[in-house]
Structures are given as C-alpha cells and as structure tokens.
Amino acid sequence: MLVDPRQLGPALVKLNPLTLWRNPVMFIVEIGALFATGLAIVTPSFFAWGVVCWLWLTVIFANLAEAVAEGRGKAQAASLRAARRETAARRLPDPADQSRWEVVDAPALRQGDVVLVEAGEIIPGDGDVIDGIASVDESVITGESAPVIRESGGDRSAVTGGTKVLSDRIVVLITQKPGASFVDRMIALVEGANRQKTPNEIALNILLAALTVIFLTATATMQPMAIYAVAQNPGHPVTLALGPDGVTGIALVALLVCLIPTTIGALLSAIGIAGMDRLIRRNVLAMSGRAVEAAGDVGTLLLDKTGTITLGNRQAADFLPVAGVTEQQLAEAAQLASLADQTPEGRSIVVYAKERYGLRERDLTGASWVPFTAQTRMSGVDVDGRRIRKGAAAATLRWVRDNGGHPTEQAGHLVDAISSTGGTPLLVAEGDQVLGVINLKDVVKKGMRERFDEMRRMGIRTVMITGDNPRTAKAIANEAGVDDFLAEATPEDKLALIRREQEGGRLVAMTGDGTNDAPALAQADVGVAMNTGTSAAKEAGNMVDLDSNPTKLIEIVEIGKQLLITRGALTTFSIANDIAKYFAIIPAMFAAVYPGLDALNIMRLASPQSAILSAVVFNALIIIALIPLALRGVRHRPSGAAKLLSRNLYVYGLGGVVAPFIGIKIIDLFVHLFPGMG
For 621-643, what is each residue's pLDDT tens digit? Predict the structure, then answer.
C-alpha cells in the first residue's frame, strides 16, 4: 500500500507555517489557501469553497509525499532501537589485567574506555577489538544472519554497539562519544531527522523561489491591468478578473498556485529522502544527502582489485604439461597433491581437475599426506610408492633436486610465460621429475567488463587499485576492461591519485576498510567504508556498506545517478505542466477583456469558473499521481548526459505539456455539472 492512513497525521503536522517555510513554493500555497479561505467566508459560493478545499489538499498532498518517504524508514528505525539495548559493561581499569573489572551501565562509557565482552554478551558500544578474536552476530545492523569474525590487529577489528558475541572473548577499546553511537546515527538518518539539503537541491529551491516571486508579482498586477483596459474601453462584460472582490481574489490565488512550480516543489524533499532510502534498503548508510548526490556526479571510480574486480582467491585455470607428459597425467598428479591443501587455491585445483578431466575420488588407503604450510609452500602425498608434490616454483624445484632430479629448461619457460601474463605458476613433480605447471589466475568476476562498459557510457572513468606488480596489474586490467590501473599502490599513492583526479574537475569515489585507507576515504567525494573495517575508516568515509561488499560502489553510483535523473525529470515535467495550465486559466479569466486571448482557449472549457477549478483540482491530483515515481525513481539507463537530457525533454517535457490538456478537460466535464459552474 503506497499511502498508510497513519501517515496523514504527520502530513497535517507539517502544515505548521514554522515548518513549511523551508519549502518556499508550498509556503506560498499555504498562505494563498489561508487568504482564499477568508475570502470564501465573506463571499461563499460553490466555486469559492471548491477552490479553497483543493488548495488545502494541494498542501496536504505535498506534505504527504514527504511523510510517505520518511515513513519508509520507520520500520528500520524501530528495529535499530530494539538493537540499542541498555546493557551492562565490564570496564577494565587496567587493560593489562583482564581478571579485574568494574560493572557500569553502557551509557556511562566514554571514549577511550576498555571493556571485556565474552560469548553470549552484548557489545556495549562502538569500538575496535584490541585483544582476542570472536564470532559476532551483527544481524540487528545488517540483517544478515551469518556471524562474522572480529579480531585485533587487522582490518576486521571494528565492532558495533548492540551486536552480540557468539564465541570466545574480546577486549574492546570504545571509540564512540556518548549518544553518538553508530546505531544512534543510523536511527537519525533513516528517520530523516538529520537530512540536510544537498547543494543541487538548495540551488533548485532558490530557482523555484525566484519563479514563485516572479509569478506572484505578475499575478498581483493582473487585476489592475484588467481594470485599466476596461476603463479605456467601456462596455466590457464583468469577468472573473473584474468580478466581486472575493471571487476575483480567489481566482487570482488559484491562478498563482497553478502557475508556480507546485509539482516539483511538493516532491523535491520526497525525492531526496527516497534516494537515501534506496541506499539504506541495500544496506548502505549515507552520512548525508550530499554524499548520495555526489555519487550521481562521480567522474572517476577507484576500485580495489581483490574482492571487487576479481574473486579474491586465485583459481586453477590451466594445466600445462612438459614434453612426454599428458594433460590427463598432470591433472591426476595435481589433484592428488592438492587433496592435502586446504587453501582456496588448493581446493580450486581439485575442483578444476574434477570438472575438466572427470577425475573423481578414489581409494587412497594407506596414503601419507603432506599438508600445505607457509614454510614449505608445498603439499603432496606418498601413496603406492609414488611421491607427488605441488607448490611454489622455487620450493618444488628445490625438492626435485634434493631427490636427485634435474629439471628441464621447459619448466622454467612455462613458469616465466605464466608470470608474464599475471598468473601464478605452481609446479607439479613426482619423485625426480617435473610433470608440468598449474596456472593460477586471479579470476575476474563475471559481468565486470559489461559493468565497466556501462560506466564508460555514463562518462565515468574506472581505475583499478592493486598491490600487484605493474605487469600482473596490466594483465588483469586488460581482462577486466578498466580504463586505468595503479600498481604497487601505497596509501600515499591513493591519496595523490584522488587529488590529481579532483584537480581535473572530476568527483572521485572509492572504497576502503583499513586505517591506512582513511586519508584517501576522507579526500574522496564519495568514500565508502566497509562495516568490517576499522573505526578510523568508518569515521573518514561518508558512507558505510553494512554488507562490506566492495562491488557495491558501482550500485551506489547508479543510485546517485538515478536520484539526479529523477529530480531532473520531475522538474522538467513540472515546468512543462505549468505551461499547459496557462492555456486553461489565462483565456478563461481575461478573454473578455482581451479578446485576442480567446485564440489560446484551445481546450474550450465550459466556463471561466469551471476552467479555474478544474486546473486547481488537476494541480493537486498530479502530486498524488507522481508520488510513486518520486519514491521509486526514474529508471536509470547507462548513457551520456546529452542523451539523458534529450530523453527527459522528450518523455517528461512533452508528457508534462500533454497531461494537463487531457486531465483538465476530463475534470471540466464533471465540474461544469455543479451549480454555478456551467
């Protein structure tokens, strides 16, 4: 259901002029409705009260659009409040002595306090793990039921107050200030309490206010001009422009309301709130509307290679045997040697041999397994008199020589060829003979090239950030289809790159999760910190991804684009809409005084009163009709700015002109049936 009846209350509360003055267009409409109400009391008629009722409904519908947008965050705010449970904390007076603690209420904790949290307990405040490792249930924040690991000394040290420790124990350094926890900020943001207008929104409000002042001035001069025209040409019939003062005043108020950009004025705030809500529903917390808007204007996208562009774990891609060995033999030996390797790379070799060469499990009774270790950098098996090893090239070659073997030059050439293309070579050997090489590749995620093509069509430049050497980075960048790459990147390199891009006039977006990413996140126009990252990273960024999915940066940019497109489309529709309403009201009011205006009366409405009331009714109903579009957003299609502009003008500009002609005419067919309207 689009509109909950319970949202009508907040919409009525917003009628308070002290609240409504922030929206200059709707503030003028409310003042006009008050003025028209007074005139209707003095000179009552169906026309007068009809206009008054629909003027008030126009203001209520505008407030309702904002209330509906804000209402979408109420459910999430309620669940977050449930997470903000008052709990006791075990504060450590001396962090070095974890056997002594004092119990205090969580709200009494201060920045710099150290607390001990064990399995089954609620983490009392935001902070960083400084000792220990534990699995933590963060479902109250992220909605994801799977527990996550939080540990000291890495980029997965940040914890959030209100989440629950499921296993082990951790020592947490509190980093939040009282009353400013992550949950508190989320509640304020999803309810819209801290939503600040963005620069574009402020600029558009100024434009709308200027148009309103211009139309207010023009409307105020219309009756004196009509009186002067009649004085110069006696004998003109009495019209709405020259009728009783009450009727004329109401007609002029109706004219003003229909001509000022009420449609976009009513929906502007709802569009901004809905944009932030779309991010929240994707588990991204934007610290300000400015960040969402900046995402829509981003010109450069900085993306980490590992986990964003690639899967993060290198996977087996080829088996390359040496002369005299078949691929099947190499695959069998590689699989046997990898069964004791529990790393993601080792598991990928087993799966690749199974899927590519049909190798299944077999009876290996009596086998002696050699597990992979960081020291040996090899794994293998001794079975049925065979000694098979798989591992890093240098380690495996040394093992072959220790067994009396003499590796051929072909093995070295294969290793060099794989390294030159950005892959990782692993040698497979049996006894004193090298069987061949496994090519491990950092696999690019499916669909990434297509996503980067879309970014390019939108005029966005993509840059891959990696710690790999330039040769490896270039190979992966070419495969993924990014525009550029930064290899062997340090925190200083990232910061320098962002500044160079910004000096060129581009807005920059990037993701990060570590303390070393904080300077770059703070410098970027859109800095998305991972929720699994450190508190420093989350404080530096202006967005937090609760799912800690670096790929989501692309979605964030698309949501920002959609926000700007929606605002532009509805602004175009609103202004075009007003142009069409001129043809309904101006001829109806002034054709008798200025006969030449009758040529503009192309709608041929029943009467001046009917024309004005029909226009006011349409003006109110179109706001309700457009609320779903404002909340859902205009569909985003990757394309350049010129193409988007022409599409907006064609669809929403033309639609804004045509819709009032049809709508007002249909309403007029009903309105003219009422007394005094024919």
Answer: 999 899 888 888 887 776 665 67
